[in-house]
Amino acid sequence: MTMRPALEPAELRRVFGAFPTGVTAVAALVGEVPVGLAASSFTSVSLDPPMVSVCIARTSSTWRVLRSARRLGVSVLGEHQERACRQLSGTGSRFAGLEWQPSEGGAVLLGGASAWLDCALEQEIPAGDHHIILLRVHDVDADPEVAPLVFHASRFRQLQIVAPDGARADRG
Length: 172
Ligand SMILES: Cc1cc2nc3c(=O)[nH]c(=O)nc-3n(C[C@H](O)[C@H](O)[C@H](O)COP(=O)(O)O)c2cc1C
Fold this sequence. Notes:
By secondary structure, this protein is mainly β.
């Protein structure tokens, strides 16, 4: 493969999007109001101390508000939460009709998600047009009955288990 000097954003998006991810909702109470956004850049970082990261666009007006919250909730969206995901990334009322609850410290956690992390901002590292947001994890929970939503090539998908013989098996 030969590397070319100018990499177009559209092509980068296409190739970066070939890597499948889950989708999270990063959210907190600001005053009495839930504020948040959908983020597929979630990654686990460290077990000891427990840390995770998300990458947030430098232009994000939501992050400008969220970053001052004492606690930040990260909810791993379930496979049925595609609409919630679109809503959480849109310009309308992001939490309208969504079931959520605040943690003691003010993290906002979505009902019906696959997993939940109650975090605090540890570090913000500038990285090009994004910031790498390092979060210290203070509490976690997961519902093994809820399969996660998958985001790949700009589309939402669902997981399937592949049997040892390569056939697609029922989920178990
Ligand atoms: C599936 C999906 C994944 C997203 N992942 C990210 C992400 O990892 N980082 C990010 O900054 N924005 C991400 N976004 C965009 C945000 O959800 C949201 O649209 C953006 O923050 C809007 O800008 P605002 O913060 O100024 O309101 C994603 C959107 C979708 C639909």
